[in-house]
Amino acid sequence: MQELDPDAALSVVRVRVRFGETDLMGIVHHGSYVSYMEVARIEWLRRRGVTYADWAAHGVHLPVVELSLRYRAPARFDDELDVHTSLAEIGAASVRFHYRLVRVIDDVLCTEGSTRLACIDARHALQRIGPEVADILRQPELSR
Amino acid sequence: MQELDPDAALSVVRVRVRFGETDLMGIVHHGSYVSYMEVARIEWLRRRGVTYADWAAHGVHLPVVELSLRYRAPARFDDELDVHTSLAEIGAASVRFHYRLVRVIDDVLCTEGSTRLACIDARHALQRIGPEVADILRQPELSR
Amino acid sequence: MQELDPDAALSVVRVRVRFGETDLMGIVHHGSYVSYMEVARIEWLRRRGVTYADWAAHGVHLPVVELSLRYRAPARFDDELDVHTSLAEIGAASVRFHYRLVRVIDDVLCTEGSTRLACIDARHALQRIGPEVADILRQPELSR
Amino acid sequence: MQELDPDAALSVVRVRVRFGETDLMGIVHHGSYVSYMEVARIEWLRRRGVTYADWAAHGVHLPVVELSLRYRAPARFDDELDVHTSLAEIGAASVRFHYRLVRVIDDVLCTEGSTRLACIDARHALQRIGPEVADILRQPELSR
Question: Span A117-140, mean pLDDT?
């Protein structure tokens, strides 16, 4: 398997905690981090020229099939978080992303996570990640 | 327009507040009531023999096109709420439901609401509510 | 009641539809609009120098007590929406905001809505909106 | 560490998929499973006599600090899922639960998951799980 360039593989996506994403403990509900990782992953793709509509037109879908989270410190309403999002692995028919969610104001790591996404076609059958798709995924962010 | 029988038009559906449905004020987030009304409406239909899959097979979809909520008292985590759900109107191409969300333990009215649902087909075009569908909607709950 | 200046009362806040905010009809779930209006309202306040932490320190909370939505056209995953957010009324102990959610790419109005927020203190008792708070709410956006 | 009795450690909690918990792929959004596991875990505790209010009164809180999910098969709107919820480990200051989400109609395993919950006090400091709490957690379901 070809190595990934860690610099090219990284995008940092900023999100802000919504009021409704907190819970009665006064902190961000753990389920909200799943949403932040999804937002960051889609933005990671967009910065490499990939939009959902494009890939759907190519018959490529990327549902989450594994997810893990580890909490390090609480985040609170209105906090800005930088989601450091890295492509970690391109497999035969799946890709893996890692995430580090860091509070902007004080650089505290709030949560780490990982997701594996299966590559499937419109009929939900696994499909190999071809060289054309892999090349797109290996790109750094396009200049914005 | 034919009158609706208020007794036949009513179903009471119980929900329990989830932890993640609260917010940092320690009470149920107002967006969660939208979810409770949806759960209750789908159960209202099921108790009259209607399941989503059935209606989709008949080419009938019922998206929410108007929604209103009025808060009366806070609900909290783990509270059981009875959603008193009434069909209020069968229009030419839409239906309206009213909701009263009452806390089970002390009978306090927490929220009132209303939704209007458009009747559309698979291509998102409005369609008239035919007599067959109207008859189903006028039924009381089937015995369970 | 003193008139509000419509220009000063308006902020436009951009949001992007998240994948998880859609439903099986392939469009934005109606409950997601409640979240977008909340994001826009909090940003409206921030642009006038108000952050939640500040107001909580002054003992001011603004829970939603009435909410209405009217759908005009579907929005889809990844759409950018401009939430045109206007303070519509400063009452004795509540404020009302209006919202128009417009799709950026083609200027289509997707949803209109309104919320009334009660002004309460830390013990959940209604409190009058004093002249100091009203003056802040009447401000236009601070230059950014 | 004392062994756990697997029969006593298990509760099966039924949930039904809500419309708003699906996404544009027409299946349950992966974030919704986080909510189902939470519902099941709180019901697991309730069946052993533990309610959130009780434990908060004892100064015991149990936030999720690790979470993992593995998807096996898609679930759809209106599916009933049995969440097989097992206490897997009582640690010094945390507990671990395992989950198997099985579709009721055809016994298909849709998702597996695991959460670790820290035991903290009202000031968010870790606290040891004392013998009194451990005894409660080792109980089977109370007769209902």
Answer: 91
